[in-house]
Amino acid sequence: MTSATQSAQPGHPVRPAPAVLPTLHRPVPAWGGFSLRLFALEVRRLLRNRRTVILMVVMPVALYFIASSSVGGDQDAGHGNVAAYILISMGVYGAMLATTSAEAMVAVERSRGWTRQLRLTPLTPVAYILLKACCAVVLGALSVTAVYLAGAVSGGPQMAGYLWPLTAGIALAGSLVFAALGLFLGYLLPSENVMQFLGLGVAAMAFLGGLFYPIPAGSTLDLVASFTPLYGLGHLVHAPLTGDPVQAVWVLNVLVWFAIFVLGAVWRFRADTARG
Amino acid sequence: MNTTTAPAPGRQTTGSDLLAVALTGATKTFGRTAAVRGVDLHVRPGEVVALLGPNGAGKTTTLDMILGLGTPTTGEVSLYGMPPRTAVARGLVAAVLQSGGLLPDLTVKEMVTYTACLFARTRPVAEVLQRAGITGIADRKVGKCSGGEQQRLRFAMALLADPALLVLDEPTTGMDVDGRRRFWQSIRADGDEGRTVLFATHYLEEADVYADRIVLMARGLVVADGTTAEVKALASGRTVRATVPGGLPTADLHRLGDLSGVDEVEVRGESVLVHTADSDAVARYLLDATTARDLEITARALEDAFVSLTAAPEPSTTPEGSDR
User: Fold this and answer.
1) B233 touches chain A (CB under 8 A)
2) Both B262 and B203 in a single domain?
3) Residue B108 · residue B129 · CB < 8 Å
4) Does residue B262 sit in helix, strand or coil?
5) Is residue B197 located within the same domain as residue B215?
6) Are A142 and B130 in contact (CB under 8 A)?
7) Residue B134 near residue B183 (C-beta atoms within 8 A)
8) Of A5, A11, A27, the CB nearest to B120
9) Are residues B244 and B119 in the same domain?
10) Confidence tier at A192 by pLDDT (50, 70, 90)
11) Per-domain boundaries in chain A
């Protein structure tokens, strides 16, 4: 019994030598596998998720109309009216929803073994993150555009012409902070929890960032809110309209939270790829 | 072990000169659990190797190390002389994993197209769909495909890069007999081109029919490695069983053990069990030279060999390895 058990006999010339010898010098894709074609396919895939699209387009547009009609948007708000102020708020809210939910899809991809499957392709981790970041920008831009377009068509918001692209640009750039948050949570939480968590989290952050209701400056709530992730962006994005001087603490708030989310995402991403 | 041979003069270095898989002294520990406890696995280009073993033998962990999905705790892996990640990036290695790795909201064709655009150079999408036998369901949503269809889709995705080495991890788990047969047919048709194939399975029949060589694993170790015929030979012996009133005298016990072909003699009370390649000699001896009666001769099935090889007593105190 023992005689044959341990005898290792590798390599038996059972099959003829391969007819076509595989060359070992094969090309590796440029950009670690990132390509415009891949980008286009990925965006199309994300847009196919109807729940995401409704969430990031319909929600902020609807909220804009509800808020502007109940408040009365014609009052003065610096270089424009209150309706413009609300429009900017909803632009930020939409962009933030779009980027977080686009990135948090990573949780679903992880649970389906897709991220693991990608490791059997030439796509590098850096290229994958780049792909995700580009998708976040596209989806964020789509959401901001939808909100601003709805606002422009309704005719409610009034502000100087240059303020439209400027505030939209700040909203979009700032929403990258939340793309990093989405990625962090996508790698941190199991897929079944991540969307619920995000829905609540985004709403809470939006409230504390003054997007739904302006928080009186100097109040206790304002002090608490100043430590939350949307506080800095919420003020920065409205500053061109209201004419308020930009405060260093807003910029600091944005940078610190961005650093925290990026470091968190890198930490979880490393743990995820080192697993197994 | 037979390893690298020097390339013939004037010939370009190709895959045939290097081992497709060289896994040396590999161990893998998850926390306090040792899943793989020292495996050497060398596969030459063109071989079709079955990694056979029960659940928890360490097959999946071994394949994960080969694919670069997991780094060995100790030991070395190289594929065609390169680290796994490099071989994967060049499209030299592809795998069909047991489950997952698909996007259910895409169609079959979209899934393959998506995968194709991750590689520098691939075979046409239509061609791999046809080879995997899923052209007919190209427009079906991945989530609506049966387990067997999804497995053939994974196979199509693996074929895209035209890999030199194809790794399959229990590819037919959960398929019915017909699905299994059809899946292996597509692999077979493809394998005629000299692709190196390494597959894990716990179906003896699959290993027997489709592999040139069987590597049998149990408890994180390789317990047998040889051609299909050699591994089957482990099971080709017979068991001779007889009752000896009063028990078999020690002298007879020794003489039985010395008979050619005998590899194990077991005494249980008045019963004696002899595992042998030459049952005639044992039967003749027992009936002629001893008081044995009620003699029975039974053939050992491959299953028995499998069970006896893989269910050997645990030699150390290390906890049983899991399959992950």
Assistant:
1) yes
2) no
3) yes
4) strand
5) yes
6) no
7) no
8) A27
9) no
10) confident
11) 33-274
